[in-house]
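Researcher: Let's try something more involved. This one mixes different molecule types, so please make sure each is placed in the same coordinate frame as the others.
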Amino acid sequence: MPGPKANVDAADDPDDGDDGVRIDMISGARMEGLTTMEKIRLILDGVRDGNIVILEEGLSPDEESRLIEVTMTEISPDDFTGIEIETYPKAEAGDQSFLDKLMGRESTQKLTVIGPANRIETLHKDENLISTLVSRK
Amino acid sequence: MGLLTNLRDSISRVTDGLFAADEPKRIGIYGPPNAGKTTLANRIARDWTGDAVGPESHIPHETRRARRKENVEIERNGRKVTIDIVDTPGVTTKVDYKEFLDHDMEKDDAVRRSREATEGVAEAMHWLREDVDGVIYVLDSTTDPFTQVNTMLIGIIESQDLPALILANKTDLPGSDVQQIANAFPQHETIPLSALEGDNMDEVYTKIAEYFG
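Model: All components are placed in one shared frame. Result:
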């Protein structure tokens, strides 16, 4: 099974050596079937490389909880200060069907932006708009 | 044989239920850094046991380990609820030791504090998934509640079906806006208080008994 790594080959990596900002937009299909830890590694490996990761469908609350936990274990002085993560506030539960609620299926579809804490800053956030400032390295 | 087994199971369920009812509920005090979680934990512990839980400070991440105060008995309207208060480190997704340098701290101390803070947040997340029976979520009512940490944590708490009481703290400060918090989390009841001044603690204790009793 191919690994969950989202990185393109180094030779094709446009972020290699210049001061641009690389954005990985990861589809829901790409995340589907990955385990929680594979998803977290996919995100954190990208973010630790200085990339902005955008998830089409976001993470479940349990995965978010584990993402925070793993992020904390990886923070180190002068190297990695953590992540900035933004999603729209949770939609009302009315979006879920009765069957989904009954079966405990959570709707996690919410566009999610994750980046290195020292490169991404949220300027404004409300129910309908997330405005962020991304700085170069 | 089947009848005996069923009878034994029934008795076991009843006795388990009786013991479970007597066991203190572990109530985690969660929220972002500097919301006043330890001030609240100390207020509750002092009011009902006479002891404090831990030191309070205006420097973020003063609490870097989850601290537990056991068997806090709260009596309300003839009803007694026994809880273990778990004061947790403020949850965040980032910790930069350089922020502590602004608080007259040497680099070594700042690095150590940030390392302890990250361990404490990881521990707090683990507690939330595994080891608490209910949550008191404390917010600073003078700051914007629409942060990602608040959104995520409330989502995590809801996904675990934990009873949650949202407290809008620091109502003694100018700029306190309780309604803003109520608007941010309309699916929950928001109780205003000043843990520092002890304002509205009567209502807080009534709600604790109601939610966690």
